[in-house]
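Archive transcription. Copying these from loose printouts into the bound notebook so they stop getting lost. Printout 1 of 2:
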Amino acid sequence: MKSLFIVCDGLGDRLTNGKTPLEAAKTPNMDLLAMNGITGIMDPVRAGIRPGSDTSHLSLFGYDPFKLYTGRGPFEAAGAGIKLKEGDIACRCNFASMRNGRITDRRAGREEEGLDQLSKAVEKIKIDGVKLIFKRCQGHRAVLVVRGKGLSPRITDTDPEETGVPPAKSKPIDGKKDSVKTADILNEFTRKTIEILSDHPVNSKRTGNGKPPANVVLCRGTGINPHLEPFKKKYGMKGVCICATTLIAGVCRAIGMDTLDVKGANGHTDSDIGAKAKAAIGALKKYDFVFLHIKGADEASHDGNFQAKREFIERIDREVIALVLEEVKDTTVILTADHSTPISIRQHSADPVPIAILGDVRTDSVKKFTERDCAKGGLGRICGINLMGIILDLGNDAELFGA
């Protein structure tokens, strides 16, 4: 039996005026999936752990992030099509806005006007003794690869992850010579981005149009290339990823999945998620395991926009789940999230996420796909690292343990 694995990024939430966005949304198709399947709640990484999107996806695919995770940057690089060499370090980057030396918006308002031109300017930055590879990714994001001798990922970020403060100074974590050198390189890179972007004509145009400038590049998630067992070797299934987020594409490429691009899919709340659903359904003809990632709910959460999140969830129900229920047969369908992103805190949390599985399952009494309803389901509370084992078992592909 084939598998369609649907992850709604940041879907889980906490209560706002007595309801989560998922509870407030009209989701008849998600509810039908839950009603005809088995439900539960899931800790994507581990109970009490706030997962990043990278560590959560590693866990959901059955790769222990506590043993294998080396940093976010290498996945961003893989998603951008940059092949890391031994000794390279990679950082995930944001175009951000500054005023009077302090950060005003870590994402430059999510405004993409002129970012290709600004990226070309940043690509010209040179630092003695190393080669810099900079590439713009989806939205306000980019990736930086530093190539040279004597580098270390054991450094802190230049992204302070808050506004109203200057960019952070990267520091060596272990005090070693290689770490000191690498931190100095990252600080010099940050300084040069401010220097070349502050007076760039694109930013003059942006501010003239009432948009925030993208006048600094902030770096975080420095890491080295991880060595991961290929998905097909690990599970005996040929897998494909359909997503519009460079980071998630990078995680999938790092484990050997194919990736499919879909026109109109952009990772925002206006993404053509219906086209992604059609692509996923079509991919089931060729692949054993199809992974469909949908980003928009997480973006609305980070913006603290309850209504936008509720409306986007309703779009997922109409444009994705309805189509899946109508057209997908003889396939295990899994619907869940990679983490919760509560509106109240605008960042990832350790709250478990709802999960529903449709297929050869023992149905339970749950009638709605929500955080609190699924907590009553037959799966109980599971850990993300165990999900692939459950999927294999439901597809009758699991090996017998013991005699």
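Printout 2 of 2:
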Amino acid sequence: MLVDSHCHLDFEAFHGRIPEILATMAAAGVSHALCVSVTLDGFPRVLALAEEHANLFASAGVHPDYPEAPAVTPEEIAALAEHPKVVAIGETGLDYYRLTGDLEWQRERFRSHIRAARLARKPLIVHTRAAAADTIRIMREEGAGEARGVMHCFTETREVAEAAIDLGFYVSFSGIVTFRNAAPLREIAARIPLDRLLVETDSPYLAPVPHRGKTNQPAFVRHVAEALAPIRGVGFEEIAAATTSNFFRLFEAARVNV
């Protein structure tokens, strides 16, 4: 059994395809998936998927790539997380790759999400790109370790991974780990403690080899796990068992819905 710890099944690429996507998941041995919110406008669609399908869960949050999104308070985000199918806060974090200029609004939004996670007592899903130093600094300043969470779609350095793990966070690898030019990332993946490892697709993005260039989907998380097994010198079943156990240990609210 595998779990896709991060996907976006509410996106247009999957409209009208959910029964097919779920059937393909089942055939691939992927039992559950976490559908991650990127805007509060889109949150009702994410929640509806989780409410309609027992093996899907939801998160509540605003991605750092949406400068037009209105400011949200920790209390507003935490209130959304009261729903039993909402198992996490996010996706939140910092992204200095796509946006430039004064990004203080991003940092303030990130702080609000960390505070919301502490209020809701649910873990954070953290996105960081070209902003690792500020991401870790703010996590420390805001007590993110109290909430715990996951560094999703990890592509940073070993030092960043270790800093996150020290805060009680997990590290999640996507299809990027299968890419030919990702040897440095595979070296990091080999050293993450097994009890802090997660796998994801970030569907519809980043389809792993042998599907690179196609629309990604939760079933393809199997290829991520299959790639991690030889990297870590263990069998596929050990990776599958560990990452599934880790998912339900981190996202405690998911366990009561299984």
